Every structure is written in C-alpha cells, then in structure tokens.
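User: I've been going back and forth on whether these two constructs are worth ordering. Before I decide, could you fold them both?

Assistant: Sure. I'll take them in the order you sent them. The first construct and its structure tokens:
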Amino acid sequence: MVEATESDDDGTISSRTVQQRVDSCLSKMFESCEGDPKGSVHRSWGVTLVMMVFFFVVSIFEMLNLKSGEGSDALMMAAVWTAVVHLVLAIVGTFILKRFPTSFSVGFFLGLLLVIANQDLILFMTFHNYPYGSVQTNHSFANLGLTLFLMLLFFALILSQFREAIVMAAVDVKGFGQGEETTVGSESYFGYEDEESEIASRGQGK
C-alpha cells in the first residue's frame, strides 16, 4: 500500500510538472499578446475567418474539378462537406466570441476547433497525391487544408491561453454587475446579523 501511494504521489508531481512546463511555454509563446489578450484573440480569429472563407471557395472549385475529371464521388462529398463544416465553424465561433463567451461555450469551441483541425490534416493526406482531376488543384486544396490545420491549432492555443480574459470580458461588457450585487447583499446580510445580536444582548441585559 505504501509503494502504491508513493507511485501515485510521484505521478501527481510529474503531471503537475508537465502542466507547469506547458503553461510556461505558452506564456513565453504569447508573451507579446499579454497586453491585449482579448484583442489578440479577436484579431487571430479574424485572420482565420478570412482563410476559412477562401477555403470555402477553393472547396467548391475542387468539387467541380473532381466532377469534371471523373474523380471519386466520396471525395467530392468530402470537399463539399468540409466547406459546409468550415462555414458553420465560422458562424458558431463568431457568435461565441462576440455574444456568448461563457466557460462552457468557450470549452465547446476549443473542442470543435481541434476536431476540425484534425479533419483538415486528414484532407491534406487524402488529396495531396490524388491523381484524378487537375493535380495542381488537388495540391492547392491539400496545402490549404494543411494551412488551416496549423491556423486552427494556433488559434486553439491562443484561445486556451487567454480564455479567462474572454469569459471575464463578457461579464464586464454585458454589465451583469454580479460583483456589486454580491457585495451589497453580503453587507445587508451581515448588518442584519449584527442587529439581531445587538437586540439579543439588550434582552439579556434586561
């Protein structure tokens, strides 16, 4: 039992060390963005949006290229589906960052980014050496998928690093006033307790 406990303790310490090293690397990587974390996230997302719109257009050309070159119906469907998925990602991501940046929605957005980034990497491997249709168009589509994979991965990292600033900024902008209400409520509550204790002490004195 003692040996098992020691191994568990060692595992916990090592995982914390790894987490600290990862956090240190991310802090150094995005050190220049710490002055304006919210603006850095929004600017990065704006650049990613431009690339996704361009990818949407290229996906349509790739579908037409495969159709004219007697390419695979499955890959034609993959090109169209990928275009639709990136369009949905652009809409959902913009809505979350601008209108609904809660802890849950930002976490959901991070997971969605990683899933679609992996899909882009698979597209790169699939279309890079595909011989049917225009080989140059296939290469362009594949390289653009690899570029989007790297961009989405980078944006996921910067959003993960500054997610607390995004969520806190939403509370400040919408003006929920949670902090002020909590303060007033706590002061009133403690004041009520003080009044009760004072009345009780007077009763005992009598």
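The second construct, handled the same way:
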Amino acid sequence: KNKKNKNNKEKENNYQNFRAPQCRIEPDVLKNKKDLYSSLFYFTEPESLLVSSDNAFYCGKCNEKREKIQGNDEENEKPKSVLTNATKQILFSELPKVLVFHFKRLQTRKKIEDFVEFPEVFDMSPFKWIKSKDEKEEPILYELFSVIVHHGSRSGGHYISYSKNGNEWFYISDGHVEKSTRSDVLKSQAYMLFYEKKVN
C-alpha cells in the first residue's frame, strides 16, 4: 500500500498481507467490460484522500518535521497533528506461488449472477509494485488450476469446483467427480479463482 503526500511529495509504504484480493464486480464498478483484469485495475486504482472530504491522510514524516521546527520540549505544547491531501494506491510488493482471487458476488443484497471473464494464463506484472527505477517490469505469469463456483442465492446454495490434474480438467461436486473441458471451465460463473505461478 503506497501513500503519497500531494503537497511535499513524501511517500509512506505500508505492508499488509492478503489472503485473497476481494474483486468487486458490481455493474457501477465494471461499467465497460467484466473481467479479472478490469476488476484488479479498479482494486489498484489510485484513490484521493482529501481534507475536504474527511478522509485526509495523517503524514507521520510531515508531523515529525513540524515538531522539529516548532520544538516539543516541556515548556511548549506539542504541535497539533496535521492532516493533508494525499493519494493512496494498493499494489503487490511480493507475489506468492499460489494466487487466489475472490469475486464479491454475495456482498450485495442480491447475488451478482453476471459472468466475469478470466484467462487461463494471467499476467500480474501491471499490479506489481516497482521498488526502484532500476527494477524492470517483466511478465509475471500465473496459470489457472482451480475454480470454485457457487450455485444458489445469497441466502444459501451449493459449491462445486473445477480442478486441473496434469492437462485434464475435472468437475467436482461433493463426492461426484467427472471429466470436464477447458471451455466449460472458462465459461463458468466463477466465485473464486486459483492460479499457480509459472516457472520461467
């Protein structure tokens, strides 16, 4: 998570573990195309933090500088914390061997039934945090190996999965297992996606 003060260009990087990125797919979010890339671009889009809208950023470095200038001995009152305008952006610093995405189909009053396109091979490089100018942006490829699908409504239903073994796909529902096809997998109404990092 990267936060940048608009006034003095100070940057603060905060690190947080993700179990599974929550991918929003509401019609007002993905207006043009419903796919995994569009949802992740929305997830990582820079967000403005403005004093005027009550979500301003507390800049620790800015306040430290202010304290040094004004002094903070016992005779002086400690300077008040200053909030500032900033931009916030979520990017991935380190990427795991297995990457899981969760489409938020059940977060609204009514389950979102829309089809969301997802690829068999996915490139994560557009969402990777470049730590330095010397670091080159190269493809970071992941290959799909499992999909979870939710059948039913927001109040209840049944989960099935598609899983890959070697070059073959299988449909799994409780104790029932049968062969499936790549085409059936890629046109399924995915609830969760599981990708494994490809070895170069």
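Notes on the second construct follow. The mean pLDDT is 78. The first helix runs from residue 36 to 43.
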